[in-house]
Amino acid sequence: MSSLELSGGRGWAVTAELEAARGGDDLAFDRLVGPLRRELHAHCYRMLGSSYDADDALQDALLRAWKGLARFEGRSSVRSWLYTVATRTCLDLVEQRGRRALPMDLGPSSDRAVLDNPPLTEISWLGPYPDQPGDSYEQREAVQLAFVAALQHLPGNQRAALLLFEVLDFSAAEIAEMMDTSTASVNSALQRARRIVNDKVPAVSQQRTLRDLGDTKIRDIVTQYSTALEQGDAESFIALLTKDVTWSMPPLGHWYDGIEAVRDFATTIPLTLCPSWRHIPVTVNGQVAIAGYLGETADSEHLPWSIDVLTFDGEKIAAVTSFVDPTVFPLLGLPPRQ
Questions:
Q1: Strands of the 256-257 sheet, one edge to the other
Q2: d(Cα 112, Cα 260) in Å, to the nearest integer?
Q3: Where does the SnoaL-like domain lie (predicted)?
Q4: pLDDT, tens digit (0-9, with 9 covering 90-100), for 243-290
Q5: Cβ proximity of 50 and 143 under 8 Å
Q6: C-alpha distances out from residue 34 to 73, 78, 83, 164, 311, Å
Q7: How far apart are CA 6 and CA 39, in angstroms?
Q8: If I label 210, which of 27, 131, 151, 297 is the partner at 20 to 30 A Cα–Cα?
Q9: How far apart (Å, rounded) are the C-alpha atoms in residues 124 and 58?
């Protein structure tokens, strides 16, 4: 239960903050929404598939909430009201900007390494989402890449209904009121959304897989992955992968499917043509990830290159999603060089 819905002294404090905010006290408004800011931002990310778009949406939603505070009648909790405003803001952005994609959404995979693979800047790409130390199991599970990517295949209303119901535990009747529609329409949207998402998201979540692996085994795999890249050790690297592994690199359009295609790509480009790697382990979208820094020689300065988000199937890596975007590094609190 949200701290804004607690009874007793805190409930009185929320009422006092609400009245102060209605009177124009912007600091009271900040204190009112502060405990919900992180979860509202995550909701905007799930809706929009971009941390930067989530920043814009949350800022716009809170501005709308501040301006509309006098119209809040208190029939629902502050949390419900803020989710209503945030969801409607995101739906406006979905209509304006469309959905975000991964390379496999655009066309078939490549069988061999493609050297001429420039960034496709005209595409709105799915982006990574930084974890926070206090995030719960459920919070991490709700931003895993496969789930957020699957959401992008849903129309805005289905996306919103599924998230509000499955992730945030609002009832169909509450969602109908939030989205200004009927309960029957919400239930219909939920049925259609579940069919699409269930077809695209593995039955076993990455959080469950990582919990089963344990921290020691995960650290061992991350070390092997990093060391193999840094030493150009193709056989050790390939041994970490499943036979049906995929490797994609937004914003680059080409992607690879299956161990032979990934072997050809890995041995041709990251293990050979990229002169020197250094790595830092991170967590992104509730998953294991590795920040890669590229240098001209082993002794030279290494600069940010990509964030490799790993998807596991048991003890092997089933997918590598490399976000080739140095601007993501500050978002994750990573150093500008190694």
A1: 256-257, 241-248, 316-323, 303-313, 287-295, 276-284
A2: 8
A3: 222-319
A4: 999 999 999 999 999 999 999 999 999 999 999 999 999 999 999 999
A5: no
A6: 20, 12, 14, 20, 32
A7: 17
A8: 151
A9: 19
Number of domains in the chain: 1
Average pLDDT, the chain: 93
Closest CA to 33 of 91, 90, 72: 72
119 within some domain: no
Between helices 37-48 and 78-97, what is the axis angle to 10°? 30
| Residue 47 token pair | 């809706």
**CA–CA separation, 110 vs 263, rounded Å?**
12
Whole-structure pTM value? 0.92
Pairing mode, if any, of strands 316-323 and 241-248?
A: parallel
In this structure, is residue 275 part of a structural domain?
yes
What is the number of residues in the chain?
338
Is 18 within the bounds of a domain? no
Long-range contacts, stretch 180-184, CB < 8 angstroms, 24+ apart: 181/157
DSSP state of 257: E
- Between residues 98 and 215, the one the model is more confident about: 215
Could you report the per-residue pLDDT of 297-310, keeping only the tens digit for each? Answer: 999 999 999 999 99
User: In terms of residue numbers, what domain contains 309?
Assistant: 206-331
Question: 162 forms bridges with which residues in the sheet?
Answer: none
Q: Please, which residues bridge with residue 308 across strands?
A: 290, 322
> Is the separation of the CB atoms in 131 and 210 below 8 Å?
no
Beta bridge partners of 130: 284
Two tokens at 133? 């130390």
Residue 187 has phi, psi (to 5 degrees) of -65, -40
Helix (H) / strand (E) element for 309: namely strand 303-313
Residue 61: closest CA among 32, 91, 35: 91
The answer to whether 261 and 110 have CB atoms below 8 angstroms apart is: yes
To which residue do tokens 């405990």 refer? Answer: 35
CATH number for the domain spanning 287: value is 3.10.450.50
From the CA atom positions of the chain, what is the Rg in Å? 22
Distances from the Cα of 114 to the Cαs of 63, 88, 262, 264, in angstroms?
A: 46, 41, 11, 10
Position 179 in a domain: no
